[in-house]
Amino acid sequence: MSEEIHLKIEGLTLAFGNLLALHNVTLELKKGEILGVIGPNGAGKTCLLNCINGFYKPQSGRILYKDKDLLKIPAHTISQLGISRTFQNVELYTGLSSLDNLLAARHILIRYGLLSAIFHFGKSSREEAKHRRKVEDIIKLLEIEDIRHHIVGSLPYGLRKRVELGRALVQEPEILLLDEPMAGMNVEEKEDMARFIIDINELKGTSVMLIEHDMGVVMDITNRISVLDFGNKIAEGTPQEIKENQAVINAYLGKA
Known about the structure:
There is one protein chain. With 256 residues, the protein is an alpha/beta fold. The protein folds into two domains: 1-82 and 175-256, Rossmann fold, CATH 3.40.50; 94-172, no CATH class. Helix content is 36%, strand content 24%. It has nine helices and ten strands. Strands 6-7-8-3-9-10 form a six-stranded mixed beta sheet, with helices on both faces. Strands 2-1-4-5 form a four-stranded antiparallel beta sheet, with helices on one face. Helix 2 (98-104) packs parallel to helix 5. The protein is globular, with a radius of gyration of 19 Å. The two termini are 31 Å apart. Residues 113-119 have low confidence and may be disordered.
């Protein structure tokens, strides 16, 4: 893990009418780290990711990435800069196969024109082969070879979550935002997902911001943790420091 700051959030405040979802939140994601973001339901965790992705426009603050303030650029261009995410609720084309879902997610990286695509020659043919290789690499990494041709809507929930992770990965992100990737999974599925997240981080050098309620997983795989409560950041530190932080124990972790 580098000390270089990959994503910097400064003074982020987001309100919906009189409801304050985030209040002056400042945090940093270091290059190559896994940063956990935890807190009770309603703490503002998903709102934070939605601001990074451009889904929400906060009233004040900055989100700095690659010398750009993400709050000042169109939301649809953010993924093209190298930021991908997964969602609490699986967001896939349920009528398509796992393979087709991953191929569809490569659209932001397509560089050939309409004419070449229609006649499928030259550049489009070469690019399509390249995209297919990239997708197959992700299929292998996530161990979903056996379901590549299965319709996503027919898959068990745990496998759909794995396909959704693949959908984010095929966009070749530098930063991966994971919103409760293990929600609804059994113990074995959580262990697999934790292993995949570590592999993505270590093998690809991807910086990861992880929202997760399973504290065992968070404590095991993250480098640092930021804690939100009612839209405020109340603590930040290593997993061990967070375990021992009285404010976090009072607001979220509780006593053993």
